[in-house]
Amino acid sequence: TFNPAAPSGIALSDGNLSLSFNNTVSESVSVPVTMGATSGKFYVEFKYTASGSGGACGVGVVDLDSVGTLEGFSPGWTRIIYFQSGGVRSDNTAVATGLAITQTAGDIVGVDVDCDNGQVRFYVNGTLQYTATGLSYGRYGFHFEPNIGGSANTCTVAFNAGQKPFKYAPPEGF
Prior knowledge:
This protein is mainly beta. The chain has one helix spanning 64-67, and strands at residues 10-13, 18-23, 29-30, 41-50, 57-63, 79-83, 88-90, 93-96, 108-114, 119-124, 127-132, 142-148, 153-160.
C-alpha cells in the first residue's frame, strides 16, 4: 500500500492502493509504498485511472536510503521514473525519451525489479519499454512509487502488487 503519511496535495483511497495528485508547487512530490525489498524479484502494475496534466506524472522505483527525505536528494542513484510523456528519468537526468505514446487513463505501466541483479524494467500495456541496469540500494531497499513533478499537475494512479489479478502476465521468473 502507499505510505499513509503522504505529503499535502495527495489523496489516498481504496485502502491506500489508489492515489490522486494535485500538485500546485514547482517541485517533485512522491509517495513510496510502505515496504521495500532488498532481495528477490518483484512485479507490480500501476494503472492510470485519470490522465495527468503537464506530462510530469510517472511511476517507478526509489531507494529511500539514498534519498533520506522525499524532497532531498543525496549523491548517487535515488530513483528511476517512467513518465506519462514517454520518457525515463534517473534522479533529475533524462535517460530515455520517446519510448511509448503518452499514457492516458486506463493504461497500465508494469514495473519489475530484480533486487539481486540491480535491474528495473518498465512495460506499457504489456510491452517492454525500458531496462535500467547496474542499480544498487541501501538498507531500506527498493520501493515502488508514483511521482509527479512540475507545477499544476494532476494524476490518479492505482497500485496492484498482486492483491488483484494482474492485467498483464508478469515476466517469466517474477
